[in-house]
UniProtKB/TrEMBL annotation:
Pfam families: ABC2_membrane. This is Transport permease protein. The keyword Transport applies. InterPro entries: ABC2_TM, ABC2_TM_bact-type, ABC_2_transport. PANTHER family: INNER MEMBRANE TRANSPORT PERMEASE, TRANSPORT PERMEASE PROTEIN. It is found in: Cell inner membrane; Cell membrane. The lineage of its organism: Bacteria, Bacillati, Actinomycetota, Actinomycetes, Micrococcales. It is a multi-pass membrane protein. The chain crosses the membrane at residues 42-63, 75-94, 130-148, 154-177, 189-205, 236-259. Keywords: Antibiotic resistance, Cell inner membrane, Cell membrane, Membrane, Transmembrane, Transmembrane helix, Transport. Residues 43-262 form the ABC transmembrane type-2 domain. Belongs to the ABC-2 integral membrane protein family.
């Protein structure tokens, strides 16, 4: 057996071992976060669902009972929840990433695990909360007698693209906040603006024609369209999905570059 073949034969098991350890550490930290979050609350998991439900109830009442504006599609409560629930995942993970290093500074400095885990655990924990909230969406779809189409199969694709986007944005935000503390408040303002700039309480098709094209450059637009496709097929526009996929991948690449280029300075600052 040649030296080259031995080298490659040794490399692959080593890479698999590192990846296995990374996944194990990521899962341990994620489950720890979820246990701590739920153990300190009497209602536990209910709170992760109650917040979007209250918000959905308010917007449903405002736009169907008060103003009766023709936004979205009936049943409007399903239309709302199918975008509001994934928004809570994105919003929660990005918001928490501003404290990813500052909150556990001692552990980040003293442990030898890859530092990306401290960011990715937030994305995963919020993603798990989102997955656990999907039965609530299904329940409202049944109660509201929403029509279900075969395009519901795109739901997992939406989860994958959103996970990539959320991880990319969080990897950019987490280290930069360490150097620029005011960025934490700025992120909250941007997220508040992004909520209304994204098709959550309305659909992309509700926008004027001139704005529909530009809405596609918001990566959340195509993602929400995929989530809604199973109930509202007209919300699925493949150009928007393609833009979401490309921009999500770009955010992840930039996030990894920013993170790797700043992690040493981060460890000195915290």
């Amino acid at each position: 057996m040649s030296t080259t073949s031995v080298a490659y034969g040794d490399a692959h098991p080593l890479q698999r071992t590192r990846w296995s350890r990374y996944r194990h550490a990521l899962w341990l930290l994620t489950t720890r976060d979820l246990k701590v979050r739920y153990s300190t609350s009497a209602l536990g998991y209910v709170w992760s669902v109650l917040d979007p439900l209250v918000m959905a109830g308010i917007y449903w009442f405002v736009f169907t009972q008060v103003f009766q504006k023709p936004v979205g599609t009936e049943p409007y409560i399903v239309f709302l929840l199918s975008a509001l629930l994934p928004w809570m995942w994105f919003n929660g993970a990005v918001s928490d990433s501003t404290r990813a290093f500052l909150k556990d500074a001692k552990l980040v400095r003293s442990t030898m695990i890859p530092r990306t885990i401290w960011v990715n655990r937030l994305v995963l924990s919020k993603g798990i909360e989102f997955v656990l909230a999907i039965p609530v969406l299904a329940l409202f779809a049944i109660l509201a007698q929403a029509q279900v189409s075969w395009q519901l199969v795109y739901f997992p694709l939406a989860i994958v693209i959103q996970a990539v986007l959320t991880a990319g944005v969080a990897l950019i935000v987490a280290p930069l906040v360490v150097f620029f503390r005011d960025l934490e408040r700025a992120v909250k303002l941007v997220l508040r603006f992004l909520f209304y700039a994204s098709p959550i309480i309305y659909g992309a098709t509700d926008l004027p024609e001139g704005l529909q094209f530009w809405a596609a450059f918001n990566p959340l637009t195509g993602i929400f369209g995929l989530y809604r496709a199973g109930f509202f097929p007209d919300q699925l526009i493949w150009f928007e999905v393609a833009m979401s996929a490309v921009m999500s991948a770009a955010f992840l690449v930039v996030g990894l570059l920013v993170f790797r280029g700043s992690v040493r300075q981060v460890l000195k600052e915290i």
